Amino acid sequence: MNGRFQLKRLPARRSRNVGIARSEMTKTVSRVSSGLNFGWVVTFAILVGASHYLGTFYTARDIPFEVVSGVYRLPNPTYLYVFAWVPLIVYPLWHFFGQDWSGAKARFVAGIFGFSFLTYLLAAAAQLYLLWILPFGLLTLITSLIFFRKAQLLLRSSGEALQGRKQLLEILLGPALILLASTIYLQPWSLVFKLPHVAEASLQKLDLRDMHFLRVSFTDSDLSGIDFSGATLSGVKFINVKMDGAIFDGAGLGRVTFENVVMGGASFQQAHIENTDMERVSLKNSDFREAWLYQSNIIGSDLTEANFNESSIGRTYIEQSKLCAASFEGKRVKVYGWDGSIRDAATTLPSNNNAMGSPRELPELVEQC
Q1: Would the CA dihedral through 12, 14, 15, 16 be positive or negative?
Q2: DSSP code string of 285-334
Q3: Which residues touch 304 (CB under 8 Å, ≥6 apart)?
Q4: What is the rounded distance in angstroms from the CA atom of residue 154 to the CA atom of residue 99?
Q5: Short-list 138, 8, 159, CA closest to 64
Q6: What domains are defined for the chain?
Q7: How would you class 26 by CB atoms within 10 Å of its CB: exposed for 0-12, middle for 13-18, buried for 19 or more?
Q8: At what angle do helices 103-129 and 63-71 cross, to 10 degrees?
């Protein structure tokens, strides 16, 4: 030995056994990791589906998507649903049928996952930007990293070096198809370039149905005939604007401010209005039938011939306002204060006194408004 340790070479058979064991362990770890990733993506898809379902059928607000749409000032949310669901559908298909794919197929799916990594990363950044939705932002971030890892894996398994145009086009085909399907190019660009603070704009009869607006403002503008049907407005301000004939049917309004606004003939049928302030607003001949108005204030406004029939009103103040010939027929009206408001003989109040917030005083009756 001469005082030295001598390393003995393992027998060839034992060496092969060690190699086989390591290979089996690697495969086992890979299968477990793949299974965990698949389980995570499926769970995330269930959460996204639940968010869509609850937003569509219950609260009229899909908050995770509303936040992303609002932060990036792209009010048409259609593209978000395509960006979200394409990878969530492709992933299970690839997991069960495509893990042995190579060449063009692998590069095509890698393009989808790579593009999804970027879009999910941007969505996570928007959701983390607003800390109150932090948990969902973290889930989105983890999902984006899974897509990034799978895109890398597919590119390595494609079997060819990415040096030619053909390989690059095969990768870009996936993102291109997603972009075309998403209709992101159909944003209302005449408005988008003015957001978040729209001032001195002329946007008459602009179609903004089913769009999302978060913390934007419209000032000194003409929005006559604008259509917000089914839209979601959160933290939006309308100041010194003209909105005659505006349509908010089925829209969701939360923490919205209307100040010094003229919106005669506006329609709020079946709208969901909460924590909203209307001050010095002309609502002549407006239609609030079957609307849900909660914890809001209507101050110093003109509600002449406004129609609130069959609406649900709770914890709301209607003060210093004209209610001439306005109609409040229904049993679900509970106004907390009518101070300074006036009505005439043509004003129709609920037959149920309790619905009026009794013993609150009713609006003052005058002979002529």
Answers
A1: positive
A2: T-B-TT-EEES-EEES-B-TT-B-TT-EEEEEEEES-B-TT-B--SS-EE
A3: 284, 285, 322, 323, 324, 325, 326, 369
A4: 8
A5: 138
A6: 12-186 (no CATH), 194-365 (2.160.20.80)
A7: exposed
A8: 90
pLDDT digits (tens, 9 = 90+) for 288-318: 999 999 999 999 999 999 999 999 999 999 9
DSSP 54: H
What 3-state class would DSSP assign to 214? Answer: strand
Contacts of 299 (CB under 8 A, 6+ apart): 277, 278, 279, 280, 317, 319, 320, 321
Query: Phi/psi class of residue 73: alpha, beta or left (left: φ > 0; alpha: ψ in -120 to 50)?
Result: left
Q: For the CA atoms of 260, 266, 272, 275, what is the dihedral angle to 10 degrees?
A: 10
Place of tokens 């993102």: 175
Residue written as tokens 């056994």?
17
Q: Which residues pair with 344 in a beta bridge?
A: none
SS3 assignment, position 213: strand
Place of tokens 């009794």: 358
- Mean per-residue pLDDT of the chain: 86
The encoded tokens of residue 22 equal 């390591």
At 29, list the tokens: 């770890």
| Token pair recorded at residue 224 | 């006559």
For residue 182, what is the enclosing H or E element? helix 165-182
pLDDT digits (tens, 9 = 90+) for 47-73: 888 877 776 555 445 777 878 888 888
Q: pLDDT value at position 355?
A: 45
The dihedral built from the CA positions of residue 123, 128, 129 and 131, taken in this order, carries a sign that is positive
Cis-peptide, bond into residue 77, ω within 30° of zero: no
Residue 159, Cβ density class (10 Å: 0-12 exposed, 13-18 middle, ≥19 buried): exposed
CB neighbours of residue 89 within 10 Å: 11
What span, in angstroms and rounded, lies between the C-alpha atoms of 123 and 82? 13
Q: Is 179 helix (H, G, I), strand (E, B) or coil?
A: helix
